[in-house]
Every structure is written in structure tokens, then in C-alpha cells.
Design goal:
Number of domains: 3
CATH superfamily of the largest domain: ATP-grasp fold, B domain
Cofactor: Mn(2+); Mg(2+)
Order of helices and strands: EHEEEEEHHHEHEEHEEEEHEEHHH
Shape: globular
Radius of gyration: 21 Å
GO molecular function, one term: ribosomal S6-glutamic acid ligase activity
InterPro entries: ATP-grasp, ATP-grasp_RimK-type, ATP_grasp_subdomain_1, Rimk_N, Rp_bS6_RimK/Lys_biosynth_LsyX
Pfam families: RimK, Rimk_N
CATH class of the largest domain: Alpha Beta
Protein name: RimK family alpha-L-glutamate ligase
Number of strands: 15
CATH architecture of the largest domain: 2-Layer Sandwich
């Protein structure tokens, strides 16, 4: 089988692990930088080129699109999809996971519990809404931008006000989210092909409130509870991701989903769990080539359930979302 991995560099640890796993199973694996891919359309035909030369066919594509090149990278992924090449993560699902507010809206509409979240365009309005997310400290997240700069923790109203004025003044949109204190566990679940295959507990460095892999959090292997497993699998299915890291704040056995990632880092989770997490991705690619139903198609078929308007009982009938 011929596998194409879309990644900025073959030396990136997660990309390297996927390449190693694919070759270990006897496949031909190539890594293409999405920025060196050109696309040609003329209304009657289409072509995909690499460094201005027509690409040889591939059996399946595994996207590892960096946030910094999302717009162009997702166009490349979509072009392969239009050519009917099986995709391990469809462009639409990746884009949906990266729009933090839309992803949270989708999950909330389908009964997935999330931390209290507010969004407004004015700094004064956001400051007034702090009470709706449980008061300070709060998480402030940019809706777009580099992941390592996309989350900050504001521990006081003064620091929140300064952060809001700076961020909104630069024209960025953001959401403000409940911060679950030490009573909660920060859990990352890796889901492949609709199945939760590994979980880790993330512990921030001493003195840090932030829950992010990019700020030195220590990972520990975690035996997933049935509720954590079921929640992560449902989230990946709703968003439509074949490969997803679902980030959960578990408070006394009650999971709240705060983020979904489409290109999760593998090496750190492998080190913590002692598991091979790249081979399951290759196995899913094999299944898609063999004709397995893609997760994203199930997501597109899931009906959007909305509550009836207040005060008008029995007027609007909606179908319950599939679980």
C-alpha cells in the first residue's frame, strides 16, 4: 500500500513514528510538505502537483497539518478528498476541531458536557460575564492562532482585564472558559477509528495552572473509566475525526470536554503509556483503503438537535441525536 503523510517535515517526532509504523507493516510511505503541493483546477479536471511535478497516485493520505498553515494545508487535504483518496482525517473535520467555539457548540448541542464557556466581542462584556464561568481564575483561549500561544490563565480580574484589552485590541476573537481547580483531573484520550485506545493524566509543573502539553505538563498513564472512554469516542464521532485527542476535565467521575485536537503528539503519550500508538493509525488507514466506513460520513449524517423555543411547549419536534 502507498501511504502519503502530509507534514511540514519527516523529522517531526509524530510524523517519524507514523512513517516507521507504516514501513514496519510493509507499506511504501512518503512525507509531503503541504506548502510544496500545488493544485490545478479548470472546471473539467483537477490535478495535484508537488514542486510543480504531477504526483504519482497514493492509496491513502494521513494529514498532519500544522496550525500555522491550516488554510492552505486543509485545501490540500480537501483536494485529495475530491480525488476520492481515503483520508485519515477529513478536511472538514480538522477545520471543525480547530474552531474552538464551533466545536464546543456542536458538542453542547449533542449533550456533551463542557466547562462553562462564554464568548463576546467586547472586553467590558467579557469581564462582566466572569461570574457565568465560576469566577477567576479563568481560561482565556484564542479562537485561532498558534496552539502554544492560544491559552492563558488569568488569576485575577486585573490580569483578566489587561489580557482582554490586549488580545481584543489586536483583533483576535477569544472565548473565556471555566477553570476546574485541583478537584479535577486533566485527561487526554487518544481515539483512532472511533475507539479510545489510550489515556494519560496530565499534571502541570509545580506553580503552573495551565493544562497544556506545550508548557511542560507531566504525563502519566491512565486506565480510562467507562465514562471517559464513552465520552471521548462520542466526541470524535461527532466532530468526524478518525484520529483525535480529546481533552477532558474529569471532576469526581464526571467528564467535561474542553478541547479536541486533530494532530495529537504521539511520542509523549507513547513514553507515558509504553504503547505503540502509531501502528493503530496505520491499521485504520488500511481499513479505510479496504472500504471501511469513514468516521466523518457518520458525523455528517448525525442530526443537529436544538431545544424548542422557550414558552412554546409541544410546538417544535426534534429528533434526538444518535449516540
Amino acid at each position: 500500500m502507498k501511504i502519503t503523510v502530509l507534514s511540514r517535515s519527516a523529522s517531526i517526532s509524530s510524523t517519524r513514528r507514523i512513517v516507521e509504523a507504516g514501513r514496519a507493516r510493509g507499506h511504501r510511505v512518503r512525507v509531503l510538505n503541504p506548502l510544496r503541493v500545488q493544485m490545478h483546477l479548470d472546471g473539467g479536471s483537477q490535478a495535484i502537483l508537488y514542486d510543480r511535478k504531477k504526483l504519482t497516485p497514493t492509496d491513502v493520505v494521513i494529514p498532519r497539518i500544522a496550525l500555522s498553515i491550516s488554510t492552505y494545508g486543509l485545501a490540500v487535504v480537501n483536494q485529495f478528498g475530491l480525488a476520492r483518496v481515503p483520508l485519515v482525517n477529513h478536511a472538514q473535520a480538522i477545520a471543525q476541531s480547530r474552531n474552538k467555539m464551533r466545536a464546543l457548540q456542536l458538542l453542547s448541542a449533542h449533550g456533551i458536557d463542557i466547562p462553562a464557556t462564554v464568548m463576546a466581542r467586547d472586553a467590558a462584556h467579557l469581564k462582566e460575564m466572569v461570574g457565568l464561568v465560576g469566577g477567576v481564575p479563568v481560561l482565556v483561549k484564542l479562537l485561532q492562532g498558534q496552539e502554544k500561544h492560544g491559552v492563558m490563565v488569568c488569576e485575577s480580574l486585573q490580569s483578566l482585564e489587561a489580557a482582554l484589552e490586549a488580545v481584543l485590541g489586536l483583533g483576535h476573537n477569544l472565548v473565556m472558559q471555566e477553570y476546574v481547580r485541583s478537584t479535577g483531573q486533566d485527561v487526554r484520550v487518544l481515539v483512532v477509528g472511533g475507539e479510545a485506545i489510550a489515556g494519560v493524566l496530565r499534571k502541570p509543573r509545580p506553580g503552573r495552572l495551565s493544562h497544556t502539553l506545550n508548557r511542560g505538563a507531566r504525563l502519566e498513564a491512565l486506565a480510562l473509566s467507562p465514562s471517559q472512554r464513552a465520552t471521548a469516542e462520542k466526541v470524535a464521532r461527532l466532530v468526524g475525526l478518525e484520529v483525535a485527542a480529546v481533552d477532558i476535565l474529569d471532576v469526581q467521575g464526571h467528564p467535561k470536554v474542553f478541547e479536541v485536537n486533530s494532530s495529537p503528539a504521539l511520542l509523549e503519550m507513547e513514553a507515558a503509556t509504553g504503547m505503540d500508538l502509531a501502528t493503530p493509525i496505520i491499521l485504520r488507514a488500511e481499513a479505510l483503503v479496504a472500504g471501511a466506513a469513514p468516521v466523518w460520513s457518520a458525523a455528517l449524517e448525525t442530526p443537529q438537535a436544538l431545544p424548542p423555543p422557550p414558552g412554546r411547549k409541544g410546538v417544535v419536534k426534534v429528533n434526538a441525536p444518535r449516540s
